[in-house]
Write a structure and sequence with these properties.
The protein is α+β, with helices and mostly antiparallel strands and 381 residues long. It is built from eleven helices and 17 strands. Helix 5 links the parallel strand 6 and strand 7. One of its GO terms (molecular function) is peptide-methionine (R)-S-oxide reductase activity.
């Protein structure tokens, strides 16, 4: 099959030599285009297939097949397919961030490849077909690393992920014949795709009804977390009012029970740089992680997202002359702070919390304190 596929491509390259990569320029840019669209460069084996699958995602503007990762200028398919040029077959995805975000693009990508095989992809063997994410910014790198850690914990692929994170340098569009191959040569494409074993593998992982009833990896991850929370909720509980009064200091009680706010820059965690998690001071519910903490300049500990949204609830707060969004813990019902829409990527949110509402658990103490389920947050550090 590899010989048959290669023969088609070599013939195509010869036939289209006048339109070959000599007329293309390498693309080297950031994650955002002049039109406000964003880009993702992904490797998942045969780019005929990954181009086809990513173009089905709502919000994707364009997908171009090509090559990245090698140092050879103007690579041809023949050079890349030999496995000696250092390039990988990739797709360059342009998407509208107002419709779909980077994690959702990765979600679609991972549900249509084998991310566990670093020796090739299905029938195509060699390093030029291995799975990889070419990140175009540190934000993309962090989103990809976090998402892959969650996928790993989910265990849906049954083998460890072997998908590389590689800094993006250049993208070389493939020969014209390869673009939209699944549309322009549908019979040959269908035959190759079936014979490659890709869909049989995906049916085994995600079910043979995955096309009619797709379930995203994010939905699977959230469902697993909800199930785990249901089974472990007995671990966390709200003590009696009398016990809460006895266990908390005056400022801790004022903040958590009377919806107070502690002084900016004069609280214990606003400048804490240790690795670990922050838990509810009353119940111990896991709330936030140092991996999502950033210096907001406000004087309060700020985070881009919670550890597990199942333990955090929000509600309108009209106590001032404008409406804010209050953040409370689910089980203890402690007032934690407020969330604002002026935070950094990837969420654009700023969870501005009161130190007095939380207790910090250093990463080296998490297992002993019963928070080993969240150690995956620190695996890439």
């Amino acid at each position: 099959m590899k010989q048959l596929k290669s023969m088609w491509r070599v013939i195509a390259f010869t036939a289209f030599s006048l339109l070959s990569i000599a007329s293309y320029a390498a693309v080297k840019d950031t994650a955002t285009t002049d039109q406000g669209y964003q880009k993702a460069t992904l490797a998942g084996g045969c780019f005929w297939c990954t181009e086809s699958d990513l173009e089905k995602l709502n919000g994707v503007i364009d997908v171009v097949s090509g090559y990245s990762g090698g140092e050879l200028e103007n690579p041809t398919y023949k050079e890349v397919s030999s496995g000696t040029s250092g390039h990988i077959e990739v797709i360059d995805v342009t998407y509208d961030p107002n419709v779909v975000n980077y994690e959702q693009v990765l979600d679609q990508f991972f549900r249509h490849i084998d991310p566990t095989d670093d020796q090739g992809s299905f029938v195509d063997r060699g390093p030029q077909y291995r799975p990889a994410i070419f990140y175009r910014s540190e934000t993309q790198k962090q989103i990809a690393a976090d998402f892959m850690a969650e996928i790993e914990a989910l265990g849906v692929f049954k083998k460890p992920l072997k998908t590389e994170l590689i800094p993006f340098e250049k993208f070389w569009p493939a020969e014209s014949y390869h673009q939209d191959y699944y549309k322009n040569h549908s019979i040959r494409y269908s035959y190759y795709r079936y014979a490659s074993g890709r869909d049989q593998y995906l049916d085994e992982i995600f079910g043979d009804d995955r096309k009619d009833n797709p379930v995203t990896l994010r939905e699977m991850i959230d469902a697993q977390k909800a199930e785990e929370m249901t089974s472990t909720n007995t671990r966390y509980s709200r003590p009696s009012d009398e016990k809460i009064r006895a266990m908390l200091s005056d400022i801790e009680y004022e903040v958590t029970q009377e919806d107070g706010t502690e002084p900016a820059f004069r609280n214990r965690y606003w400048d804490n740089k240790q690795a670990g998690i922050y838990v509810d001071i009353v119940s111990g519910e896991p709330l936030f992680s140092s991996t999502h903490k950033y210096k907001s300049g406000t004087g309060w500990p700020s985070f881009t997202q919670p550890i597990n949204e199942q333990y955090v609830v929000t509600k309108p707060d009209n106590s001032l002359f404008y409406t804010r969004t209050e953040v409370r813990s689910k089980i203890a019902d402690s007032h934690l702070g407020h969330v604002f829409e002026d935070g950094p990527a990837p969420t654009g949110l700023r969870y501005c919390m009161n130190s007095a509402a939380m207790r910090f658990v250093p990463v080296d103490k998490m297992a002993d304190a019963g928070y080993e389920d969240y150690l995956y947050l620190f695996e890439s550090q």
